[in-house]
Write a structure and sequence with these properties.
Layout lengths: L1 H27 L4 H24 L9 H41 L3 H12 L1 H36 L4 E9 L10 E5 L10 H13 L4 E4 L11 H8 L8 E3 L3 H5 L3 H10 L3 E2 L3 E7 L2 E8 L5 H12 L8 E5 L5 H6 L4 E4 L10 E3 L2 E3 L11 E5 L2 E5 L17 E9 L7
Parallel strand pairs: 1-14, 2-3, 3-4, 4-5, 7-8, 8-9, 9-13
Antiparallel strand pairs: 2-14, 6-7, 10-11, 12-13
Helix pairs in contact: 1-2, 1-3, 3-5, 6-7, 7-9
Length: about 425
């Protein structure tokens, strides 16, 4: 169902954009058959490739390395740019729609219709209409150039330039012996054609270089295929931390045909999965419980899985929860979790603008938690931007992120 929906949305955008482009070419270059032929060829070529990828889902390991540089990047740029252009056309259509409806209703009256015809014949109107068309054409050129340029930057630079961030969280019950304990957080790897073994090796090197006490990976090890776990396992088997490496399953791990095989390979590579389970982390006599839950679909199920994960844990120990989706912060607060670490949103992946803690991104329509630190009662949460991509393999105003989480002993301040 997911693939069918994605295909429908992509091809609808492509169809609308092709119709607009074809109409413009017929009006401005009616005799230029070469340009129109190239236009048809580009649309057919890129959409045929997309259809093949979605239907056949080729194994990443079987693809030659040169495809990434010479085949995939043009594909990224085409679909990223046409997606933006489709959004611009949609926005313009929605803005014009009330005026077009009003004009259509008005012209149902013969007097108004006659008056409109008279106005259109006036030289002043014709001059205005001609200048308007020139303005719109130039604006479209600018938007098209910005779309392709911005997408090229997002695919070639924004997607591959990680940011190392730090976030500190006070926990009232944290023993002094754990003050300053560090957790390196990575999320949303999405091993696959958009996240190669070479790129994962680089992220593993960065994670090890953070010298954290503990490393966690909060799900989406693969994109959608079971075989994608093997390059992940090969790369992430090199992760090392004094107190271990842990992880939880994300929704894309369950999208794959065989999630249990993915879980087994992830476990075997050294990333210990917490599947509605917990482990006690000790430094000297000081301890805290690290809990992890499988990706969940409903708030009630989230509460149940967190409760199962806690089990018969000794009361009074601090509790840190790994949960792929951040939506369940209220349920974590009900279960008296001190800190929740999540991903899933990719920080929006494409962020048009941000104002303080407000992000203009499509992801904000699905989640009130997009990126960064949040607080619900005595429970804090950090949502990672992750390192991989999904859908369109670009990042704009939203670089990949690896985060050093620092635990501090101290009073939790309630948000004002």
């Amino acid at each position: 169902m997911f693939r069918i929906t994605l295909l429908a949305v992509v091809f609808l955008i492509q169809y609308v954009l092709f119709r607009r482009t074809w109409k413009w070419l017929k009006a401005t270059r009616p005799e230029d058959g070469i340009v129109r032929g190239v236009t048809i060829g580009l649309f057919v070529f890129f959409n045929a490739i997309f259809l093949v990828i979605m239907l056949l889902r080729p194994r990443v390991a079987a693809l030659p390395a040169w495809i990434e540089s010479f085949g995939m990047y043009p594909f990224y740029i085409w679909y990223g740019a046409t997606f933006f252009l489709g959004l611009v056309i949609l926005a313009a259509t929605l803005l014009k729609l009330p005026f077009k409806i009003l004009l259509w209703i008005s012209t149902r009256f013969s007097r108004v219709r006659a008056r409109v015809r008279v106005i259109k014949r006036q030289p002043a109107f014709q001059e205005f209409d001609a200048s308007r068309r020139v303005f719109l054409r130039r604006s479209m050129f600018t938007v098209t150039a910005a779309s392709f340029g911005g997408t090229a930057y997002g695919a070639l630079v924004g997607r591959t330039t990680p940011e190392l961030t730090t976030a500190e969280f006070p926990i009232a019950s944290l023993p002094p012996g754990l003050d300053g304990f560090t957790i390196a957080l990575a999320s949303d790897v999405h091993s696959g054609i958009f996240m190669t073994r070479r790129e994962m090796d680089e992220y593993v090197s960065l994670l090890n270089g953070m010298n954290a006490d503990l490393i966690v990976v909060t799900g989406d090890f693969v994109n959608s295929l079971t075989d994608e776990v093997y390059p992940f396992a090969e790369a992430f088997s090199a992760l090392k931390a004094p107190h271990g490496v842990f992880g939880v399953m994300g929704n894309h791990d369950f999208f794959a045909p065989n999630p249990e095989l993915i879980a087994r390979e992830v476990n075997d590579c050294g990333v210990k999965l917490l599947r509605n389970d917990r482990v006690t982390i000790s430094r000297g006599d000081a301890q805290f419980d690290l809990l992890g839950v499988d990706d969940v679909g409903k708030p009630a199920l989230a509460s149940e899985k967190i409760r199962i994960a806690q089990g018969t844990a000794a009361g009074g120990r601090p509790r840190v929860l790994l949960c792929h989706r951040p939506y369940y912060l209220p349920q974590a607060a009900e279960q008296k979790i001190d800190l929740m670490l999540s991903g899933h949103t990719h920080g929006g992946q494409i962020v048009l603008a941000s104002f303080g803690e407000t992000f203009m991104t499509p992801a904000a329509l699905a989640s009130p938690y997009v990126w960064g630190a949040y607080q619900h009662g005595n429970t804090a949460m950090y949502v990672s931007r992750g390192i991989g991509t999904v859908g369109i393999p670009i990042r704009i105003n939203c670089p990949p992120e690896l985060t050093r989480i620092v635990l501090r002993s101290g009073k939790v301040e309630q948000p004002s």
